[in-house]
Amino acid sequence: xxxxxxxxxxxxxxxxxxxxxxxxxxxxxxxxxxxxxxxxxxxxxxxxxxxxxxxxxxxxxxxxxxxxxxxxxxxxxxxxxxxxxxxxxxxxxxxxxxxxxxxxxxxxxxxxxxxxxxxxxxxxxxxxxxxxxxxxxxxxxxxxxxxxxxxxxxxxxxxxxxxxxxxxxxxxxxxxxxxxxxxxxxxxxxxxxxxxxxxxxxxxxxxxxxxxxxxxxxxxxxxxxxxxxxxxxxxxxxxxxxxxxxxxxxxxxxxxxxxxxxxxxxxxxxxxxxxxxxxxxxxxxxxxxxxxxxxxxxxxxxxxxxxxxxxxxxxxxxxxxxxxxxxxxxxxxxxxxxxxxxxxxxxxxxxxxxxxxxxxxxxxxxxxxxxxxxxxxxxxxxxxxxxxxxxxxxxxxxxxxxxxxxxxxxxxxxxxxxxxxxxxxxxxxxxxxxxxxxxxxxxxxxxxxxxx
Length: 452
What we know:
NhaP-type Na+/H+ or K+/H+ antiporter; globular; Na+/H+ antiporter like fold; antiport; transport; mainly alpha
């Protein structure tokens, strides 16, 4: 494929990515669906014959491309969340109840269920565990249709507070996607250790102390430190020239995500968590400042560009051999993950002893929607490529075919249903709010008559 044709195809697809989101809003067809479909059609032509798309030969390229896409998405997610998290206040932790439930209950249940299913279907224990870890996280890249739209900035604190409590479904899925990509890493490492060091008794304690707890704490601390320092410079530096927030220079967001990720990884922590923690910390410094919106817009555009090329390459790969090892077991895993395991695990997590009032409270319909929309995507490809660098068995064609099919099923099923479901929930929420307003007005009128 000549360089000229590469530029032509990339340009046309980029035009589509710019135009289609607004055109397709509310339709049962999404931009990721069209990009993957376009890539599949390109893969059926002779154009990309000389493109090296094999997952085994291009593992490092796949790993770094998906890694970059995920960290950019995590920065955007962290900046977009309006609801504050004050680590010193228990009441603030409670408002994040859906996120903790999805992370602490739904994610381990999903990993265990997928691993057991893979093992029952004949996969080796380490391969089955990796499959569970890879397919567990809700993807921050492809879940944009069910996530919060962006940072709400206002001079009126009450306006911001009302926005933070407006959509519990979007908040739950956004906060989950921001955190679980980093928290899937310990289980990926567990699969690697199981494949390379054998019995759990030989490495289990070390895994809990370091991979599960130590690296998580380091990643969060590194991100908070970078976010705090950058926010102090951007908003409150003694030298006015350094206060980039005042002149609205949004590229600091890109600098922040690379710095946080680098510091987190150099410190031996989880870089994904560092990026999300950096964004949350930076946002908390001046929560209502319009600069957050400027930063988010730059990150969002960069994410869209990266997602374009990743999905296009995935689509081409699907018709150029990625699915050649597909079998009935792959279909069973893909259908079970999207249609049964994730929804059931998340429902259990959200329903048991759930809050009944205040932020973090979901109605029954909202719990169903939150449980269902566990989008699988780019992060799964990253983890699979990462694990394949250490263990030869993790480079198997069956694993790649299974994960690729699961992503396609998720993109199609969740993409087709996200618009109608979220619109219906928003309509019901508006009706309920209007009903509450009418009831409050009637109550005030009755009190007025009583006073007279």
